[in-house]
Amino acid sequence: MLSPSGSTTRKLLLAFGALVALFTAASGFALARLTDIHDGSHALREAGGRVRDSLELATAVRDQYAHLAHTIILGNDSHARFHDEARARVETLTRRLREQARDAQEHTWVADIEQNGDALDRLYRETLLPAVVAKDQAAVTAAHGRALELVSQIQARADSLAERFDASIGSFEEHVGAVEHASFRWALLFLGGATLFAVGVGIYIGNSVARPVARLSEGAARLARGDLNTRIPEGDPGELGQLAAQFNRMTEALRAHQAQLVQHEKLAGIGRLAAGVAHEINNPLGVILGYVRLLQRKAEGALAEDLKVVEEEAVRCQQIVEGLLDLSRPGRGPVEHVPLREVCEEVVARLRESSRLGDVDVRVEGDASAWAWPPRLRQVLLNLVKNAAEAAGQGGRVALHIEAASDGGASVAVSDSGPGVKPEDRPRLFEPFFTTKPSGTGLGLAVSRAIAEAHGGQIDADTGPLGGARFTLRLPPASPAQEAMA
């Protein structure tokens, strides 16, 4: 005789075999319809992709023009790299649209976009950028007018392509809808008879496996509500017991990674916000500061004091924008073999010269080296030392302890004698815009952690040997290629 579990398995196999045979008959009829639906859906996705590419092209051209305009406004070539990136995106989308063009009209429009895009790029490189560098205002004005014409022509062609592709979507949707409607009627006819049989199978399954499945469902519901302490009893035999064990291990993994995932999502959201808004905010702020400083030369008395307040607040806004930009692009550049003690002493000296340390006693201990992009590494260390000095206060102490790790990496621990971090604040320390200082932007630690992670490292916070907070920057060991260079 079969064991209960074997008998149950056989009955389930027989029941599901009958269901499969019944559904096979329905599937034979539906297969041809599904093929038609698949072909129509594929064509629909292609048309949607062409519409999306057309709209992305118009956006990319606007980005290219925005960097061209920034070049004019700033009066230097600092946005040339961003212009090149936007231009590369325009070329990629144009090439994709050329491959997707279906008739002579579409090929002509894409050719116009390609021609005008090349002309816009040449205008920027050969005329506008040299004129900006040479401060030739007349040439800049003429080139800017021509650039506007080219951008308008490209966007007009891109909009025409989008409208043409969008019109084709309607016919595909109508065809697919008609086929789906017919298939649905026939499916109901075939599945109606199968429903009664499936009810009997369902009753048996409910009686044999309902209880462990109910526990799994309840645990999944608690997990969906955010209860990461959910655990399911693992005493059920067979696959369901194994599934419960896997579920518990998954919950443990989710709990372990939740904090990191939330942090990354917040940084990604801030990065998208910064990429779309920061450049547009920075330009009017620069204009405001320019005019305020111009008026300060002529103002006296109370008006001069008011203008000073306006300048300070505008500079604060600029610092927030710069922090957003740092948060949106924390990536590392060309890494070098950096002596950490030398960099730490340089950062302390720079802060000391700018009077940001006051009479705080800052000491650098230990020595090690690591592979990093020096400008970003200095930015992280400057943030950590400045925060530690502010926390220590006048007459306080700050210690930088450098240590080589056993795996070949290195760490820099910045400790202060301040009041430390409150337990309730620790989970939010690296959140963007969270700060315990009345004048802080709340971006320094978020940017620092993003830079550390871009280098493959991390930043941890705990209580240091001086009684206050300790922030430890950990950098990974060198890669084989870097070791070969060293």
From TrEMBL:
Catalytic activity: ATP + protein L-histidine = ADP + protein N-phospho-L-histidine
EC number: 2.7.13.3
GO molecular function: ATP binding; phosphorelay sensor kinase activity
Annotated compartments: Membrane
EC top class, as a word: transferase
CDD domains linked: HAMP (cd06225), HATPase (cd00075), HisKA (cd00082)
SMART domains: HAMP, HATPase_c, HisKA
Signal peptide start-end: none
Keyword Glycosyltransferase found: no
Predominant localisation class: membrane
UniProt protein name: histidine kinase
Naturally occurring in which organism (per UniProt): Pyxidicoccus fallax
